[in-house]
Design goal:
The structure holds two protein chains of two kinds. Chain A is mainly α. Chain A has helices at residues 2-8, 11-21, 25-38, 48-52, 55-59, 63-70, 80-87, 111-122, 132-143, 149-163, 173-179, 185-188, and strands spanning 45-47, 77-79, 129-130, 171-172. Chain A folds into two domains: 12-89, EF-hand (Recoverin, domain 1), CATH 1.10.238; 107-189, Recoverin, domain 1, CATH 1.10.238.10. In chain A, helix 1 (2-8) packs across helix 3 (25-38), helix 6 (63-70) crosses helix 8 (111-122) and helix 9 (132-143) packs across helix 10. Chain A has twelve helices and four strands; from the N terminus they run H-H-H-E-H-H-H-E-H-H-E-H-H-E-H-H. The longest helix of chain A has 15 residues, at 149-163. By secondary structure, chain B is mainly α. Among the domains of chain B are: 160-393 and 414-514, Na+/H+ antiporter like fold; 526-598, no CATH class. In chain B, helix 4 (52-71) runs antiparallel to helix 5 (76-88), helix 9 (162-179) crosses helix 16 (337-354) and helix 19 crosses helix 22 (485-514). The longest helix of chain B has 38 residues, at 580-617. Residues 1-85, 603-653, 665-686, 709-717, 724-840 and 850-995 of chain B have low confidence and may be disordered. The chains are: A mainly alpha, B mainly alpha. The interface between A and B is large, with 68 and 69 residues.
């Protein structure tokens, strides 16, 4: 599988992905083999169904939201570049020299981008605000059925109230950043990709 | 604890018996069991440090028999009688000197007293204790005490006895550490911990051992030290392990960041397995002789390590499951819940010790494993008990350990000084610790998400403290087989003292100098709770997508398993159905509430000054009651919180929320705990209070039955249910337990109020959750929701009006106290009943707004306002005074009112769920039932006249201030005017006692 992956992936493409995402060569080829194994249609793109076939994702309460996060708005296919771009959010932040190659724009795995990824999971309608309803939906997914609507509602209200500084009854991205400023997002939104 | 005496005895025996008093069996387990006979032998001279004179009087036999009397309480009487005869020659004496009878517990108690008083003294000077760690002071004190003993007795009677240490002192500390171990943090760093604990300890042990041997060969270490390679390896093994007691004592004062702490501390706990195995293996090697050791023995050693560590862990986990399972069924015997926790955790330790497995590992994992389930199962009070008892025991055990370390050091007979050995050991353990840490960190950082930087490594190297475990192990050595034992003992003592005192003293400045990130005691906010959970899910999903079977993957798998099987098995049904997030939410709410109460308490105290004038204006007697009541409550709140749990620096911006919280959650614990805790605060006795409460409740419910007969049964059930529900609620609340007294301010009125409210809107509202009572009220008051974020607003679900764009300024403008701070709003004079609430409200808000000015957001002041407008709306004729200048707000409030009306018609679908809950919480009901039944003779009292529900604006008006206040001030005001008020003396008599 690995050999097949590397043959299908052109060297310059790897370079570009490397530049964009900061993944290492071996990580890219490894993830490409994963990509192709997920790609049942073998057309170089993943559809939502391809993701939904992952068994663990089916039981993940936020699974659907995360799958959605892989797809650019309005599309239902994602190619390897897009796949890697999304995964790159979760690359741990390494020592500064690594990030220099994309000095022009912020690297995908910056704190802000990590937070933005999480924020987008809540923000279904992409209005850059987490409304109460949007928050409620996510909460409902996470807590399951053990909790009443009222309880959930009070949690949501409290959450919004705590974060909301401008009084619009929703959480903007800036408010989201602010409310999580004491959290070690760099660590808590990173996973270790095998080298 | 009896062993403390044995300690003395053994010390004496050791002193006389050429250093072999402890018997020194090779293994720790057997040693513990075999040592008691030694001191019990009659030949041991009595260890009477504290009272040297009686010793001469009584002689050895008396002590021996006293000991046996103490050891076998059953036969104590006979023994004592015989002794009396023996010593006093018969005849009846009016006063008898019973020293030998009380000796053991007496000495123990005196020791504990000395240790505790020493602790108090150390903390007299704040500046001093911030510089010098307590452990240093305790060791110094021990040295002094040891010197006194030595001078008085010419030989050392006391020492840190291994049996005492391993069987009693160490488990209390480890149990505390394990039970309160932050599990998530521990497992997040498990890889690093295991690495340092296993590889690091092995590295330290071998390197120290071999280097010392090399030093011996080179000649640095004196010839008198008769030790070969195996002896040095043995010594290296026992002296190289980082000690949990020392690490805890020192690091708890340093407050390094959590990750660093958990790595060092986790290492010190987990390395026990390595130490035990190395120690055992070397001892057996020493016994058979180095030349007879075969290759297979090395493999046996490795196998032994696996068995000791894994076995110990498994024993701990088995006991954890057992503990969780048992606490599932303690609903009706809440009082012994803490005992189960202590017993099973301790049994985990002893059982592991019994099979010579790693007892520390066993206990640690028992604590970690059981904590989640036990905490969820046992009652709030039990949780507090467990926490405080564990902390107390651990603290005193730590104190004793350090004092005895000091005392043990002052014992010439055990010392054999060799400068070469001591200095070499010190240098080697320090160097190898540093090398080991750096090497391992280098490896670990290749795998760690967050690498450990240089500063971390320095602190970890420097934090490799040795302590009492090493000392106890070295004392356990057999002087016959390890001929250099005395040298080793001396060296170990020096090493322990050096690490604990010198490094312990300097680590704080070092940490400061290196600017190591400190830990913050900040509690997570609800946002952090939610979003971090989301992060976990996201990471798990991403790992799954990326095809990695990483940490999050397995953690998720574990959580699934836990949720599907373990929690089902180990958690009560009622607890199992609760959501963790909800629990977290509750905790946060309560925390905030407490902080607000703290502030509110102060506000009320200041408000008190203005109150008398108001009361003079008041025409109704109830009003006077209200004022008194509130005043007392206010000051009571203030006092108690300051005494018990002052939460300084609370977030002012959450005040608004916390008002709600008060309304929504807090009345429960208030009712729940009042009887239990009032013991401490109310010398008048809880009986009286309970009676009063029951009486008042009774009256209320009767009134309400009068009001709306058709809902009579329904409501009664509900009030019962609520009380039951309060029991279940308690599980979620962490803090209230401690802030007891404000909870029992007035347990009576609140439920009544809510019931009355229900009576008023006689729709069959649904009894949503246990803590519904006030929420309902608050919701009602809340309904004109200009403030969109209110918690109760959430309860209305989709009814909530569309997020009205609200501007802070308009908000402010219709806050009466905002309009003209200092001058009472016009409405004050409209009706006498309203005077107090408004007044208080103003005082409150003045302080709030003053606080508010510190933290800019306009939010804090809001909570009051919607309610006020609600009041005005309900008050009918009155609203003009409250109508905000902004006409927009006025219209919103009326819209909100309509919405609110709609939202009150809750379906009754939840009733059945309630029933189930009820069964679960029957225990609580049992507490209540006798009182209720005894004081509720059906129809005995004519219900007081009460306006028909919902029809009289007057009643609503009069009640409203109370509603408002209740949700506003911590303590609810006394019952509303219509019912016969509680005897004025009641509330008054309550106040002073609380004060």
């Amino acid at each position: 599988m690995g050999s097949r992956a590397s043959t299908l992936l052109r060297e310059e493409e790897i370079e570009e992905i490397k530049k964009e995402t900061g993944f290492s060569h071996s990580q890219i080829t490894r993830l490409y083999s994963r990509f192709t194994s997920l790609d049942k249609g073998e057309n170089g793109t993943l559809s939502r169904e391809d993701f939904q076939r992952i068994p663990e994702l089916a039981i993940n309460p936020l699974g659907d939201r995360i799958i959605n996060a892989f797809f650019p708005e309005g599309e239902d296919q994602v190619n390897f570049r897009g796949f890697m771009r999304t995964l790159a959010h979760f690359r741990p932040i390494e020592d500064n020299e690594k990030n220099k190659n994309s000095s022009a724009s912020e690297p995908l795995n910056s704190r802000t981008n990590k937070l933005l990824f999480a924020f987008r999971l809540y923000d279904l309608d992409r209005d850059d605000k987490i409304s109460r309803d949007e928050l409620l939906q996510v909460l409902r997914m996470m807590v399951g059925v053990n909790i009443s609507d009222e309880q959930l509602g009070s949690i949501a209200d409290r959450t919004i109230q705590e974060a909301d500084t401008n009084g619009d009854n929703s959480i903007s991205f800036n408010e989201f950043i602010k409310v999580l400023e004491k959290v070690d997002v760099e660590q808590k939104m990173s996973i270790r990709f095998l080298h | 604890m009896l062993l403390l005496l044995l300690t003395a005895g053994t010390g004496t025996g050791a002193g006389t018996g050429a250093g072999t008093g402890t018997g020194a069996p090779p293994l720790r387990g057997p040693a513990l069991r075999s040592s008691p006979p030694v001191p019990a032998s009659p030949s041991a001279s009595p260890p009477l440090l504290l009272l040297p004179k009686p010793r001469a009087e009584y002689g050895a036999p008396g002590v021996a028999s006293a000991r046996s009397a103490a050891e076998e309480p059953a036969g104590g009487g006979g023994e004592e009688a015989g002794e009396q005869h023996h010593h006093h020659g018969g005849g009846f004496r009016v006063v008898q000197w019973e020293w030998s009878y009380v000796q053991t517990p007496y000495i123990i108690a005196i020791w504990l007293l000395v240790a505790s008083v020493a602790k108090i003294l150390f903390h007299f000077s704040q500046r001093f204790t911030t510089v010098v760690p307590e452990s240093c002071m305790l060791i110094l004190l021990g040295l002094v005490l040891g010197g006194i003993v030595l001078i008085a007795n010419k030989k050392q009677l006391y020492q840190l006895e291994p049996a005492l240490f391993f069987l009693f002192l160490l488990p209390t500390i480890v149990g505390d550490a394990g039970y309160f171990m932050p599990a998530r943090l521990f497992f997040d760093n498990l890889g690093a911990i295991l690495m340092y604990a296993v590889v690091g300890t092995l590295w330290n042990a071998f390197c120290t051992g071999f280097s010392l041997y090399a030093a011996k060969l080179v000649g640095v270490i004196d010839e008198r030290v008769h030790a070969d390679l195996l002896d040095f390896l043995l010594f290296g093994a026992l002296v190289s392990a980082v000690d949990p007691v020392a690490v805890l004592a020192v690091f708890e004062e340093v407050h390094v960041n959590d990750t660093l702490f958990i790595i060092v501390f986790g290492e010190s706990l987990v390395n026990d397995a390595v130490t035990v195995v190395l120690y055992k293996v070397y001892i057996s090697f020493v016994e058979v002789g180095a030349e007879n050791v075969q290759t297979v023995d090395y493999f046996k050693g490795v196998a032994s390590f696996l068995i000791v560590s894994i076995g110990g862990t498994l024993v701990g986990l088995v006991f954890a499951v057992l503990l969780g399972f048992i606490t599932r069924f303690t609903k009706k015997v809440r009082i012994i819940e803490p005992l189960f926790v202590f017993l099973l955790v301790y049994l985990a330790y002893l059982t592991a010790e019994l099979f010579s497995l790693s007892a520390i590992l066993s206990m640690t994992f028992c604590g970690i494993g059981a904590n989640k389930y036990v905490e969820a199962n046992i009652s709030q009070k039990s949780r507090t008990t467990v926490k405080y008892t564990m902390k107390t025991l651990a603290s005193i055990a730590e104190t004793i350990i350090f004092i005895f370390l000091g005392i043990s050091a002052v014992d010439k007979t055990k010392w054999a000084w060799d400068t070469g050995l001591v200095s070499c050991t010190l240098i080697f353990i320090f160097i190898f610790r540093a090398m080991g840490v750096i090497g391992q960190t280098w490896v670990l950082n290749r795998f760690r998400l967050v690498p450990l930087d240089k500063i971390d490594q320095v602190v970890m190297s420097y934090g490799g403290l040795r302590g009492a475990v090493a000392f106890a192990l070295v004392v356990l050595l057999d002087g016959e087989q390890v001929r250099a034992k005395d040298y080793f003992v001396a060296t170990t003592i020096v090493v322990v003292f050096f690490t604990v005192m010198f490094q312990g003293l300097t680590i704080k400045p070092l940490v400061k100098w290196l600017k190591v990130p400190r830990s913050t005691s900040r509690k997570p906010t609800i946002n952090e709770e939610i979003h971090e959970r989301a992060f976990d899910h996201i990471l798990t999903a991403v790992e799954d997508i990326a095809g990695l079977q990483g940490y999050h993957h397995w953690r998720d798998k574990w959580e699934q398993f836990d949720k599907n099987y373990l929690s089902k098995l180990l958690l009560r049904k009622s607890v199992y159905r609760k959501s963790e997030l909800w629990e977290a939410y509750q905790k946060i709410n309560i925390r905030d509430a407490i902080s607000v109460i703290d502030q509110g308490g102060n506000v009320l105290t200041s408000a008190r000054l203005s109150l008398p004038s108001m009361t003079s204006r008041a025409s109704f007697p109830e009003v006077t009651n209200v004022t008194n009541y509130l005043r007392e409550n206010g000051s009571g709140v203030c006092l108690d919180l300051q005494v018990i749990d002052n939460v300084p620096g609370a977030k002012v911006e959450e005040d608004m929320e916390t008002h709600h919280v008060l309304a929504e959650n807090l009345y429960k614990p208030r009712r729940r705990y009042q009887s239990a805790y009032s013991r401490h605060f109310m010398p008048l006795g809880e009986k009286e209070r309970q009676d009063r409460e029951v009486f008042q409740r009774n009256m209320k419910s009767r009134m309400e039955t009068f009001k709306s007969t058709r809902h009579k049964r329904h409501k009664k059930e509900r009030s019962l249910k609520k009380r039951r529900g309060s029991d279940s609620k308690e599980d979620g609340n962490e803090k209230p337990r401690r802030n007891v007294s404000w909870q029992d301010k007035d347990p009576v009125v609140v439920p009544v109020e809510s019931e009355e409210e229900k009576g008023e809107h006689s729709d069959p509202e649904k009894e949503k959750e246990e803590d519904e009572g006030i929420t309902f009220v608050a919701r009602k008051a809340e309904t004109p929701k200009i403030r969109p974020k209110s918690v109760p607003a959430a309860l209305e679900g989709c009814h909530s009006p569309p997020a009205a764009p609200y501007s802070p300024t308009s908000e402010d403008s219709h806050l009466p106290w905002k309009g003209g701070v200092g001058s009472p709003p016009p409405c004050v004079s409209v009706e006498a009943t309203k005077i107090i609430p408004v007044d208080l409200q103003q005082a409150w808000n003045q302080s709030i707004s003053s606080l508010e000015s510190i933290s800019s957001p306009p939010a804090p002041a809001e909570p009051v306002h919607p309610r006020v407008s609600a009041l005005s709306r309900l008050g009918g004729p009155r609203p003009a005074s409250y109508t905000p200048p902004g006409s927009l707000a006025g219209s919103t409030s009326s819209v909100g009112a309509q919405v609110a009306q709609g939202s009150f018609c809750f379906p009754e679908k939840k009733e059945e769920e309630e029933e189930e809950e009820e069964e679960e919480e029957e225990g609580a009901l049992q507490e209540m039932r006798p009182l209720m039944s005894s004081l509720r003779p059906p129809g005995a009292m004519p219900p007081p006249p009460q306006p028909p529900p919902g029809s009289a604006p007057g009643s609503g008006k009069r009640r409203n201030p109370c509603v408002y206040l209740r949700s506003f001030v911590t303590a609810p005001p006394p019952p509303p005017p219509p019912p016969p008020p509680p005897p004025p003396g009641d509330s008054r008599s309550r106040g002073p006692t609380q004060l």
